[in-house]
Design brief:
By secondary structure, the chain is mainly alpha-helical. It has 3 helices and 2 strands. The two termini are 31 Å apart. One of its GO terms (molecular function) is structural constituent of ribosome.
Length: 101
């Protein structure tokens, strides 16, 4: 089980990313637009740098919904391999059977 603080930090980052997504996209569009003047593009970059760092989508990390584990994460199920194996063994995931031979 991951630390509660790490799980809460990821939730906080996800909220910030959602909150500032529109603003970041607009500023990035201005900053990358070749038809704008150099000053306009530069001021857009400065405004982008003023936004909170945790509002950037690249700072998000996938974590297991059940345990908070950051490694071995299955995107399709949004859980880690360990939690997936447990749920599969208990028959809680439809169509998944633990193989044995």
């Amino acid at each position: 089980m991951a630390k509660k603080a790490m799980i809460e930090r990821e939730k906080k980052r996800a909220l910030l990313v959602e909150k500032f997504a529109g603003k970041r996209a607009a500023l990035k569009e201005i900053a990358n637009d070749e038809s704008k003047t150099m000053e306009e593009r530069f001021t857009a970059r400065l405004k982008l740098a003023k936004l909170p760092r945790n509002s950037s989508a690249t700072r998000l990390h996938n974590r297991c919904q059940l345990t908070g584990r950051p490694h071995a994460y299955y995107r399709k199920f949004k859980i880690s391999r360990i939690a997936l194996r447990e749920l599969g063994s208990n028959g809680q995931i439809p169509g998944m059977v633990k193989s044995s031979w």
